[in-house]
């Protein structure tokens, strides 16, 4: 069994971005800037946002953090995004999801300028992704998984892949990226009839449903590749969507939680911010 070490790969990507940032600072006198908006005090979101801010400072990126109270109204959030759209120091705008219920996620994403959509959540970017355009901004989690699979030279052509999860952020774009690489993709969800019949024939299973230890040893075939997107905080600790101890006995490759997909998601956010910076500055 080979552990797909996202922590190590993310570190290498970040090191490269850090060196590039230093060069840009010397040649252009400016660096990529990322604005991060968090509304409310969801503890998990706070942890993610703080790690993104810390990452910016490690890389030499500028960060512009906006922590807004839970009761902030939609208009205020849209107004802030409007200001950030105009701010030349800001190359990427990230609004941490989920948003409080009184704020319309669609309106918020619509407001973000296309060339600052470092999450790749806008319809234009998702459409380009579906069409196989490699220059568009891709959502960070699926993009990070593709990088990780590439780093371990995992062939996708002709593979039967089951994606469990159908969110706009992970499941749907993940399916498209895999299809573009020649995989045969089945997209399931937690309500899929006889999920085990599907996962147990798959060459690769990607779990993204947010239920701790949902995928068990009896649900996978010998030699399968297992990718775990889940980050579930329970009373007993932090677990992925995969029952790691059991499944790793049968898997050929598996991502750990933590240290698998999570760090790759954050690394791709910085890579997208660099991409946005270069585009606006006509570099390469
Ligand atoms: N919430 C969970 N994952 C993500 C992500 O990739 N981007 C944003 N903005 N919010 C998230």
Tell me about this structure.
α6 packs across α7 (171-180) and α6 (140-151) packs across α10. The chain has helices at 6-28, 43-59, 74-86, 105-111, 123-130, 140-151, 171-180, 195-199, 244-247, 261-280; strands at residues 2-3, 33-39, 62-68, 92-95, 160-164, 184-188, 204-207, 225-228, 232-234, 237-239, 253-254. With 284 residues, the protein is of the alpha/beta class. It has a six-stranded parallel beta sheet. It has ten helices and eleven strands. Bound molecules: guanine (GUN). Guanine (GUN) is lined by residues 94-97, 119, 140-141, 169, 265.
Concise account of the structure shown:
Residues 139-279 form the Tetrahydrofolate dehydrogenase/cyclohydrolase NAD(P)-binding domain. With 284 residues, the chain is of the alpha/beta class.
